[in-house]
Design goal:
Layout (H helix, E strand, L loop, with lengths): L2 H17 L7 E4 L4 H9 L7 E6 L11 H15 L8 E8 L2 E8 H6 L12 E4 L4 E7 L3 E8 L4
Antiparallel strand pairs: 1-4, 2-7, 3-4, 3-5, 5-6, 6-7
Keywords: Plasmid
Length: about 160
């Protein structure tokens, strides 16, 4: 990354810290910062552990896909229905987008849960995980469905 790109990313990180201040943001990561987190994000769906929940993306009885707004609503509902798994965690990390760049935001989990419906900029297909990587929620779009992966491990 050249100096101009680094300055841009640093400015975006400051803006995200300000945006997410009300949910107790601890840190914002970009790219290969915190490599263990990055590996978890990249491999989340490539495991047989956990459970999968799926929701349709096609109108029942037709071949028409739901609108982007409807898909965003489905994503929000999948996360909201399962966010309780983080209640025992002090912090969680979620993926966020800002000006076309992807970031990982570490914040207070109880503040995140409390404000879930009001948090802007969460990735279209979000990944949320505990700091110790024991709990993970990940939404991915498949061809005809949205898939939520819920992973709860006793140990790392």
């Amino acid at each position: 990354m050249n100096k101009i790109q680094k300055l841009k990313i640093d400015a975006y990180k400051r803006a995200l810290k300000e945006r997410y201040g009300p949910i107790g943001v601890v840190s914002v990561f970009f790219g290969d910062e915190e490599p263990d987190d990055l590996v978890l994000c990249k491999t989340a769906h490539n495991t047989r552990d956990g459970k999968y929940v799926r929701e349709r993306l096609v109108s029942h009885g037709s071949d028409r896909y739901f609108s982007d707004n409807k898909i965003a609503d489905i994503t929000q509902k999948l996360i909201a229905d399962h966010i309780h798994v983080f209640q025992g965690c002090s912090e969680l990390t979620f993926t966020a987008e800002y000006h076309g760049e992807s970031f990982r935001v570490l914040c207070d989990s109880s503040a995140f849960i409390e404000n879930l419906n009001h948090i802007k900029g969460i990735s279209a297909y979000p990944i949320l995980f505990s700091r110790d990587h024991r709990i993970l929620l990940s939404v991915m779009r498949l061809e005809y469905e949205m898939e939520l992966h819920v992973l709860i491990r006793n140990e790392c």
